[in-house]
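ok trying again, last paste got cut off:
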Amino acid sequence: MLKLQSLPIKKGLADNLNSLLIKLFFLRAEIKLNKVLNYIWIAFFIIAFAVALIKLMVTGDTEVFKTIIDATFDSSKMAVMDISLPLTGVMTLWLGLMNIGEKAGAINFLSRIVGPFFSRLFPGIPKNHPANGQILMNFSANMLGLGNAATPIGLKAMSSMQELNPDKETASNAQIMFLVLNTSGFTLIPITIIAQRAIQHATDPSDVFIPILLATYFSTLIGLLTVAFWQKINLFNRVVLTWILGISALVGCLIWYFSTLRHEQIAVISKVSANVILFSIITAFIIGAVRKKVNVYDSFIEGAKTGFETTIKIIPYLVAMLVGIAVFRASGAMDYFVNGIGWIVGFLGFNTDFVGALPTALMKPLSGSGSRGMMINAMDVYGPNSFVGHLSCVFQGSADTTFYIVALYFGSVGIKKTRYAITAGLIADLAGVIAAIFISYMFFH
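nice, full thing came through this time. structure:
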């Protein structure tokens, strides 16, 4: 097969043709992607209205529009009262601590460690820039299941990358890579899901641990490959391969180790290790700042002041996205969509046992609390030890809430043009869903 570089044309033209081929490969997914959130938000309302109108006229459901309106009020209240206001305290705390860490030199220390790797994945970020350390800490907190700590650190990392972004309203390559890796939701210890299964009286609450770890790993890997392909990042570089293979080996060892433990032991180890690591980081920041003769208290106050400001910026984006999701769900459109998929799968002659768990998978990119409710509902209806009960838990842990993360992270720095971030994030989500189905058939069917 002829390569474009072998043709007697200028290198610039070859690069342009290669870019065109990449866009065709993704079926023109980048066409006006700066307006993708606008299209999705409009679709939520139009589809919901159409479905509700049909239900009113055909089935005589006189409560459907009331249900939708109630959902708009409930979701907007949730965006402010249940998410934004509680987040303010956490944001204030962690942005204050992050400021101490920066002045103590901890962030720069982490940046030097991961600099060679991140300089390949995030070529737009200088090797010793604080954003490298912030990104690493965000990923570490997510892997340990410490979402409350990961969010403010991630917002700080996004803010640092925004300082390097030449177009303040358009997502940079580095910001897109960071966001997609976050939406893939790579978590080593899904303690919340295990705890919920225990509450539902599952015979072995931790039996989903390995399937979730495998599914979320595939989601993260596909997300990384997708963005790298889009941004033409060379993943066959020796440094990149060493890190990816090393992380893969570490994941493999952790899978093997936890597979030898009982669920009670997993719960204890995960809780202790996660919190010890987290508080050790806080203590290290403070000790490092004291050694550098930094006024620790003033540094904390200085960083904490930005917590409230950041939260205020987030509120409109969260309200818009959560209301749109609530309308789509309350109208019954989600149920019709799932039932339609089940009919198509059955018509093609495939096993349809997985369809009952699809609401969790479909809700996950839209709403973490919504998908958690779907997961609990699946265990209530089918039983925590059923195939659907198991699969819904694996779906819940296989990826993160793409649209929520986009609204949260990009909204915090005022980015309006998301480019291909949502498309790449949804590709990672889809990879996690497909992996979860195959892995769950292997483990539980």
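cool. Residues 23-444 form one domain. The chain is about 75% helix and 0% strand.
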